[in-house]
Amino acid sequence: MTAQQNMVRIYDRVMKSSKQRRYYGGSGFYNFGYWATGAASQREASEALVDTLLARLPGKGGAILDVACGLGASTRHLLLSYPPQAVTAINISAAQVATARQNAPGATVLQMDAVKLDFADESFDAVICVEAAFHFDTRAAFLAEAHRVLKPGGALVLSDILFRRLFASGVSDRLGVPKANLVADIPSYKAQFGALGFTDIAVEDATDQCLGGFRRSLVAWPGSEYRKGAMSFTTSLASAAVCRLIAGYFGAVSKSYLLVSARKP
Ligand SMILES: C[S@@+](CC[C@H](N)C(=O)[O-])C[C@H]1O[C@@H](n2cnc3c(N)ncnc32)[C@H](O)[C@@H]1O
């Protein structure tokens, strides 16, 4: 099994787990979220992440492509701003695509690899990619494809993670992050967009607003479930240990969480 197949298998399994679904409030999201706008739950933070990326588009309207749509929660959220015929979403996992079709009725949801977009040149006014580009083999290949399928004047918005090189082999193996994506720093990351012809490139370091908020929320979650009577004392104790481990792991391996926008001239 390749590292990519393993990563997809893990996502397919974890996204279906009952604990995960409860933590995300049954929303189908699977991202760290954006907490700076006062989100009271992971679901709200995940919705806010899509909103904060959409706010970075020069304008709404036209056709939008949601790359690596997961279970279709981001796609469903796009339907609040775009008519269904304007929304296309892709994911590499057949199982996630099947759920995304249910979660985002009316949108076109296709199984596809982000580095081989099966669309004609200049098909979309906007491309959004929430917390997934670090997995693509490679991120640079995806950026080239995004540039190709965007219309002139169109924009790409994404949230992305820079991982620590120190953890290179662990991150690559466990999280399915190709080594080519372990970019050294934000200037090198930003340079990739310029080299492909993007302009108006903005890269904001939102590590505390996204990863930090997620880690705080995850660690607090079992206790709040217990206080609500939604989790027994022993389950909440066991969950607290697991949540601390997950929060600690992501804190250790991640260097920066980025909010990015760029335009095709
Ligand atoms: C952290 S999840 C984010 C899902 C969704 N965007 C969200 O915010 O809820 C990463 C997603 O990337 C998808 N993915 C990974 N590699 C991919 C690729 N090469 N092409 C398309 N999707 C991919 C995974 O299947 C998974 O759904």
TrEMBL record:
One of its GO terms (molecular function) is S-adenosylmethionine-dependent methyltransferase activity. Coiled coil: none annotated. One of its GO terms (biological process) is methylation. Residues 65-158 form the Methyltransferase type domain. CDD domains: AdoMet_MTases. Pfam families: Methyltransf_11 (PF08241). Keywords: Methyltransferase, Transferase. InterPro entries: Methyltransf_11, SAM-dependent_MTases_sf. The keyword Methyltransferase applies. This is Type 11 methyltransferase. It comes from Mesorhizobium amorphae CCNWGS0123.
